[in-house]
Amino acid sequence: MDDAVEKYLTELAQIEHDDPVLVEMEARAEKHGFPIVGRATGRYLELAARSIGARRVMELGSGYGYSAYWFARAVGPDGLVVCTDGDAKNATLAEDYLRKAGSWDRVRYRVGDALEGLAAETGDFDVVYCDVDKDGYPECWRVGRERIRVGGLWLCDNVIWSGHVATGDDREGLPGWTAAIREHNRLVAEDDRFVGSIVPIRDGVMAALRVS
Ligand SMILES: C[S@@+](CC[C@H](N)C(=O)[O-])C[C@H]1O[C@@H](n2cnc3c(N)ncnc32)[C@H](O)[C@@H]1O
User: Fold this and answer.
1) Do the beta carbons of residue 205 and residue 155 sit within 8 Å?
2) What is the whole-number distance in angstroms between the Cα of residue 105 and the centre of ligand 1?
3) Can you tell me the distance from the alpha carbon of 192 to that of 129, in angstroms, rounded to the nearest whole number?
4) 0.85 exceeded by the pTM?
5) How far apart are CA 69 and CA 56, in angstroms?
6) 45 CB less than 6 Å from ligand 1?
7) Can you tell me which atom of ligand 1 is nearest the CA of 87?
8) Percent of the chain surpassing pLDDT 90
9) What is the structure's pLDDT at 188?
10) 114: Cβ below 6 Å to ligand 1?
11) Which residues contact 52 (CB under 8 A, 6 or more apart)?
């Protein structure tokens, strides 16, 4: 997305909802170059989850809990957000931040491979959200889509990949990731159980509603 437009959307999202914990989490991302979804996309994830009355959200690739912050707002005090990440340090940080935000009691954080975390859970989800390393996207879709209830949502970040999905070029140092995202996008489009669309916010979010 154009930088000026992204800045504008971020400022609007800040008017809609602000919180010192979010500011702290964003400062960490800036300092360490950690790829959180950011304010405008976070707000969109909350909206998408709220719009289907989500109570159970499964995150594949949670980092230190920034996207989970937004899902935790959407699911409410009786809801559940299952987080997954391969890095145990992120789980500790997420606990610190989300305790401060008052939503840690809605979160179950599983350290390890995201799909192993999903396999360890029983039941379907209202939302499965994907933000793992991009070479994992096709497999996450194949497995994740089977765990979404009819009327539930598949949400997946970075599906425009700074425009590389259009040219097919790899991003430097990340061989195969563009092809994997393109495969994911095609697979979602081909699955007639889902009605999907890419929301071109920040780096693109796939939103696909399970209709059958
Ligand atoms: C883009 S970041 C997630 C950011 C997070 N969704 C947010 O907006 O705050 C991706 C995270 O997924 C983790 N990760 C990548 N591939 C994974 C996998 N296959 N299983 C579990 N975690 C994975 C990385 O350690 C990293 O913390």
Assistant:
1) yes
2) 21
3) 19
4) yes
5) 14
6) no
7) 25
8) 99
9) 98
10) yes
11) 126, 127, 151, 152, 153, 209
Distance of CA 140 from the midpoint of ligand 1 (Å)? 12
Residue with tokens 């070479």: 135
pLDDT in tens, 15-63: 999 999 999 999 999 999 999 999 999 999 999 999 999 999 999 999 9
Provide the β-strand partners of residue 130: 60, 156
Task: Please work out whether the CB of residue 91 comes within 6 Å of at least one atom of ligand 1.
Answer: no
Farthest CA pair distance, the chain: 44
**Cα atoms in the 13 Å half-sphere on the side-chain side of 4:** 0
Ligand 1 binding pocket includes 35 (Cβ within 6 Å)? yes
- CATH number for the domain harbouring residue 43: 3.40.50.150
148 band by pLDDT with thresholds 50, 70 and 90 = very high
The pLDDT of residue 1: 82
Mean pLDDT, the chain, rounded, equals: 97
Count of structural domains, the chain: 1
2 confidence band (pLDDT: 50, 70, 90): confident
Range of the domain at 20: 3-210
The 8-class DSSP code of residue 170 comes to P
Regarding the beta carbon of 116 and ligand 1, being less than 6 Å apart is answered no
